[in-house]
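FIELD: query
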Amino acid sequence: MKGDSKANANNGIIRTLDLKQNHIRLLYAVILVIGIVVSFIGVAPLIWVALSGFKDIREFSRETTILPRTFDIGVYIKTWNQLHFARYYLNSFISVAGSVVCSVFFNGLLGYALSKVKPAGSKIVMMMIMWCLLIPSATSVVPLFINISKLGLTGTFIPLWLAIGANAFYVVLFKNFFDELPQSLIEAAKIDGATNFTIFARIAVPLSKAIMMVIVMYSINAAWSDFLLPYLVLNNTSLETVMVRLFMFRGGRTSDVDVLRSIVFAVVPPIVLFFVFQKQITQVTIQSGIKG
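FIELD: result
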């Protein structure tokens, strides 16, 4: 019985028995071809950029073939050293690390308060958070930068950390997840004398690993790829992130081939991150779809 149930769980939508029918086999072939075409369209630009990075400026200018004449990884190492990418990587990692901590802690704490503590005025706060989802983020950049300048926080990572630590979307995700936690656990902890923060740290957080994984993925991607606010806050400093410096290369003396190699350096970390956490991302997506 266990073997049969396991086999059924791994069958998927189309079973092996279904493929014996001609129309199912044709449908499967069409879906497979469409999937391959869409995947190729998505991956082709990245492949072109990576292959073009192996060319020199003359070969790139002629652009007779997609494949380079040689695959010398030394040209990438040379660009990495010349453009001092190690420093910009370190700056981006600092920005990402602080953003992840702030996004999980502050947004999670507010989401828990709105879900379980429900202090006076919590409905008004939740309504304001929902209204924030309707406001384009670009419209708040100017007043946000003015406040950052008045506080003297330009040239530091603190505004980047706090900006992503006050994300309305993350708060809504946390609140919806905490709404599913059994209220009996919260009441039992209160009877034992635990404070609200203790319940959040020792009960809610360990039980919310799934949603925390989602928030961490979103935060890393947002912090790594963010350009506008880091450009305004960190421009002309030694703390410029990869995306900011990548934009600066366009106006300098950097060749087009070096820019392409820099693009490869910029997209490698998110790709590696996806492959490392691919299983967790897929599981969380499936679980979210089932709950929805």
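FIELD: remark
Residues 1-9 have pLDDT under 50 and may be disordered.
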